[in-house]
Amino acid sequence: xxxxxxxxxxxxxxxKSDSSASAVSDQLxxxxxxxxxxxxxALRQNDSDPRPRAWRLSPRSVLTYxxxxxxxxxxxxxxxxxxxxxxxxxGDDGVVERSIVTLASERALLLIGEPGTGKSWLSExxxxxxxxxxxxxxxxxxxxxxxxxxxxxxxARIIAEGPKPDNMIPSPTMIAMRGGALLxxxxxxxCVPDVQDSLVSILSDKAIAIPELPDANMLWAKPGFNVIATxxxxxxxxxxxxxxxxxRFNYIYIPVVADQKTExxxxxxRSTELIAQYELPVKINAPILQMLAxxxxxxxxxxxxxxxxxxxxxxxxxxxxxxxxxxxxxxxARFFGSGAVTPGDVAxxxxxxxxxxxxxxxxxxxxYNTLVARKRGVTDVGWKEFxxxxxxxxx
Amino acid sequence: xxxxxxESMTATASCGSxxxxxxxxxxxxxxxxxxxxxxxxxxxxxxxxxxLETVITxxxxxxxxxxxxxxxxxxxxxxxxxxxxxxxxxxxxYRDDDNVLGLAGIASASETIPPRFAxxxxxxxxxxxxxxxxxxxxxKAEVVFMDLPHFAQIKPASSPPxxxxxxxxxxxxxxxxxxxxxxxxxxxGFYQSLAQAAGYKSWDETWDTxxxxxxxxxxxxxxxxxxxxxxxxxxxxxxxxxxxxGTIERERHxxxxxxxxxxxxxxHPAEVMVVCGGLHLFLxxxxxxxxxxxxxxxxxxxxxxxxxxxxxxxxGYGAGNRAPQFYQTGWDLNRSGRxxxxxxxxxxxxxxxxRQDGYPVSSADAISITQNARMLAGLRGRAKPVLDDIQxxxxxxxxxxxxxxxxxxxxxxxxxxxxxxxxxxxxxKLGRMPxxxxxxxxxxxxxxxxxxDREKRINLDLDKRxxxxxxxxxxxxxxxxxxxxxxxxxxxxxxxLASGLLFRERWALRWSPKIDPALVEQNLYGDTIESAxxxxxxxxxxxAGHQADLVCGHLRxxxxxxxxxxxxxxxxxxxxxxxxxxAFASLVxxxxxxxxxxxxxxxxxxxRAELGDLIVRCFDRxxxxxxxxxxxxxxxxxxxxxxxxxxxxxLLRYERGDASGFSLDRSLFVEHVRTAxxxxxxxxxxxxFVGMLAExxxxxxxxxxxxxxxxxxxxxxxxxxxxDFLNGILAVSRTSVMLGAEPLVVAIDQLLRSxxxxxxxxxxxxxxxxFELLQAPQVDAVARVVARQYGLxxxxxxxxxxxxxxxxxxxxIADIDREVSEIMSxxxx
Lengths: 395, 829
Description:
The complex is a heterodimer of chains A (395) and B (829). Chain A has 395 residues and is an alpha/beta fold. Chain A contains 19 helices and eleven strands. Chain A has helices spanning 2-7, 32-35, 37-46, 59-67, 93-103, 119-131, 146-149, 155-161, 172-179, 193-196, 198-204, 243-248, 260-277, 286-301, 319-335, 343-348, 351-354, 360-377, 381-393; strands at 69-76, 79-85, 108-113, 137-139, 151-153, 168-170, 182-186, 207-209, 218-220, 226-232, 249-254. Chain A has a five-stranded parallel sheet with strand order 4-7-10-3-11. A two-stranded antiparallel sheet of chain A has the order 1-2. The termini of chain A are far apart. The relative contact order of chain A is 0.10. Mean pLDDT of chain A is 87; it is low at 1-23. Chain B is α/β, with parallel strands linked by helices and 829 residues long. Chain B is globular, with a radius of gyration of 34 Å. Chain B has 37 helices and twelve strands. The longest helix of chain B has 20 residues, at 807-826. The A-B interface holds A 59-60, 63, 93-94, 97-98, 100-102, 104-107, 112, 233, 236, 243, 246-247, 249-253, 255 and B 1, 199, 201, 360, 362, 364, 368, 371-372, 375-376, 378-380, 392-393, 395-397, 399-403.
């Protein structure tokens, strides 16, 4: 691994090579362009395909960065090393291809899907690979204002000096437009429609009007500027985008992960990264990950591998929730358990993930534990521990 | 994601040996430099058709050996006839009249029924085989079909078990249709590795990328590329798979046909061409084993018009084409020198179709889609977009949400444009098969010939007491039984006797391109409509075994189809089935059929006494079977309640004296309903059973109210089932509810007052469902009781039901409702 050879003497450096879980940083969470800086640099050095204007990488290299590829030879911090390009997004590669192409086109990109399907994750990596920065972000909420999308003023200096370009506080949008970079707009459908519509002129004219500055009353976006928005499909209809705005976005739907093998791989990779981030000396073994993914899949689908029909909860049991349970189980094992994650640790941390808004989901978990886990526990000690622990957690 | 070149890959054969690129190239050179000129094809590929046409025109061979069914050799002139227009299909059927294969009773329903097998060989105007036949005709070359007849591949019952490593089930399966090898490509190790490396999601996508969208330049370069690809595929297919698939036996027939013809006609290799699937180029030329001989039996071949829909994979035809119209458009545009317009033409067609279906798309979308498709193709390493890129681009640019939900109308538009509506035509010089002639003759005799002159729907109201109408009815019933899609029965006599239209039938007739193929398929059963119906019904009776509902249903069909020679036989079988079938649902359905047949008894000269005996036996057995289903799972509850109602209706009908000579045992029915009531723990079924007892006056109406009120005294977890119980009562009980409306309303009121809010919410859906079962007069009656209960006067009640909406608003609502219905209807919702 390139990072291990390169960062030994530079532990405090922001440059980390890849998904290696042993990375230690003063920052709780680093943005993708820092965390995967070596991979991005290796791709840049090996990139021979044409790039759209202002893109750091060619579309094909962006794709390789996100879906993974062969190790590349590169010179990182003066040393020639092989840099493995790890897979960042699991699922349909077509989703990534369509996203990249959209960002190279006239239209903006809206990633839509159930909670926890990896929309923000994909958005962050796309921005990191294409623009070299994933931090030009607006978090949509019911309280997001038009000023947060466009610009605002330093009131004290306005009073003292009047409206001047230096007195303006640029929004992430404005910075992205000036730099020809990607703007990330998270949870766009949480914003009220009037605020959303302030994006219409930004997306169609690629400009922001600044009437307060007669001599510089338009800011024009540089090539490379575009928007990646995300929206939760459960919010559809709450603050649905206007027809005008919809036309300016290509929607790309990210489905819940379809197969067990992929889901196990996602949980394995992400939980390993998080465990490293929290500096936990624990490891989650493959059978435990299999069990966790199995429980989530079966309850989500309402059917077990033996064909038993069970009720489905009101919560979306996303892969992100499974990763959360894995991390909680690791924390529990580290601080209150033996240090090794057990089926009991998984069971202990399951209730909070599945029972959220509706207490009736407790009955569903109970049904699963009684009908499925108990039966499996007759022949499998792991499932028996899972059942017994979960039974103790349920009223 | 660059496409890996074939030359850079190594093919690892499943037998363990590894072929280097150089060895593969040598293998390819050996075939391509052979004195005999071999041209590889993929069925239904327009690109292959284009190059093949060029080669035949340039080489002007004397003979073209084609991978077509040898038994259909005589049909070639009709395929190339100027009046024949694809899509068409060669059809070949085989009937083992003397059971020479020993498969009677194994591949057919009984030992007395001869096994039948059939195959279709569809051809599009851009199928390489069709284009080759046309080109050969132009250069006056003879075309020879060299493929082994499909029936020669059927393994006799006496054949030894397959060798180790060969799937016994697969190898015993008769050939299904055509000679498509796509599945072998998709299974090969080479393709699997290639798809993984290049990111291809399907074999179709791979083919289109590597061969369909490439430049239509030098045919020899194309031939070499395709041959090399096929060599790598063949090297990575397990040899036993080719045996199991019948490929080896077919290739022996290829070789035998080529050698015999060349020897007999004294042909030089340079004077002939061999056109076959790409895998066959690498057949074992040293294999001297003879192909299997064709078994004796009746063989029929013909050509029938086909449709693009039947061609499409959506129709379930396994060896189909995923988008017949898309490739047709590409073929047509290429021939007129406008191949580059395919993307724009296709996108505009899809958007037009989507707009017609009410999906909001604009011209700006069309521009974005074409840009997006080209960029996707570039990202995926393709010079031009293939169908997958274009479809992805359409979904990306136009679907504002989940493609499986919001995008469904768009997907339907894509499917419609992919498939198209083209229908083929066959020259009249070919003549018709006997069953097709019989069909057209009867159609003309019955005054229905005009259907084929005007492609429009005709509604036919028949009164079967009129001789012509009776004959028409029999004919249409027979066609329906043979799955010939000419007519659809709209108003059918109901087994529950609800309609009362005993002698009247309403049919909707419409000509369809599927009629001729459907008739041709039925030729296996007989040469006339009547003989085919008799054979097929006998086969279905053998399959039905002792399932009373199926056998009695067949008796009804034999009466509808006027098959007097079969009726007695079927009636006997019905008796056996009724005595042996213990299933409540089956017995009730059988009783429904028998009761309806009984109404025809005199009209059709049936033996009434025997029929009556059958009805009594069936009724009695259904009563005895009722308690067995008292604890059935949820999904059977509706069937049980319908069954109980059906039994009660038939009981009451015969009690009223509609029948003579026999009667049904009321006490037996009451006793078993009561037993079922006592046994079941399911509230819905309990309600239905006690409701039925009330309807039969076996319990007073007030008892229903008492049972409902009893729920008010139970715990919350029991009380929530009151809605199910009431639903069961109202599902079967009409009169008794009207008679006991007052106490029932009081009981429900008492129940609702006892329920807390959560329990009420849980009961509510089932309570609503229960009251929706009531008809308008019953709702009014219950509403009046409720009004009185709460002290409302008659005037107040009138005011409550007065319409407050304006006429204009009501009209607007009606218009919107109609438009929504039309859109949903177009979307088949």
